[in-house]
Amino acid sequence: MTTIDFYFDPISPYAALAFERLPEALAGRSVAVRYLPVLFGAMLKSLQHKGPAEIPGKRDWTYRQVQWLGHRLGVPLDLPAAHPFNPLGLTRLLWATAPAGQTPGRYAVERVLRHVWRGGLDAADPARLAALTADLAPMRDPASDEVKADLRDATDAALARGVFGVPTFGVGDKLFWGLDALDMLTACLDGDAWFDGPAWEAAASLPVGIRRN
Fold it and tell me: Which CATH superfamily groups domain 2-203?
C-alpha cells in the first residue's frame, strides 16, 4: 500500500476541492492518505512569498476560479464571509483531534473544511469555532503546547521536504502541488513510465536565466 501525504491548510479553497475529489481520484488504488494540516501563512513567510489572496487581481481571479471549479466538479463551495482569515484555531483543532504521534482522520478534516467552505459564514468566528470544537470533541486541548508543537513541526517538516504551497501531495520523494496535479498524481501511482524518465529530474537542473532584485 502506498502512503500519500496530503499537506493542506483550511484557508485554501483548492485544498477543500482537492479533498472532496480525492475519493474519486484514488478509487481502485491501494493507497492510504495521511492528512497533515500546516500553516500556509508560515510557509509563505519562510519562503518570502505572497499568497494569491494578497495580490490584487489575482485575489479576485482566485475566488472566481474556485467557484467555477466547484460548479464544474459538482462540489459545493461557498466563499466564507471574509478571506483570508486566521486559520490557526482550525489547524490546531485538527491536530488536537488526533492522539499524540498520530495525524487527524478524514472525518475531522472534512468537518473543518466544510466549516470554512460551505454556508458562506465567518470561518474564524469564535462561537462557530467553539461549537465545532464541542462537536469534534478533540482528544487533546487545542491550546496545549503539545498541539501547537505538532502544527509547528508539521509545517517545518513540510518546508524541509520542499513543500511550497497547498494542497500538496507527497508520494515517496515526489511532490505534486495543486488541485490540477491530481491527474499527475494518479498517473504516478499507476506506474506511468514517464516518472522514471529524465524529465522529472531535468526540471530541477534547468539553469536560471535572470533573477529579479
Answer: Glutaredoxin (3.40.30.10)
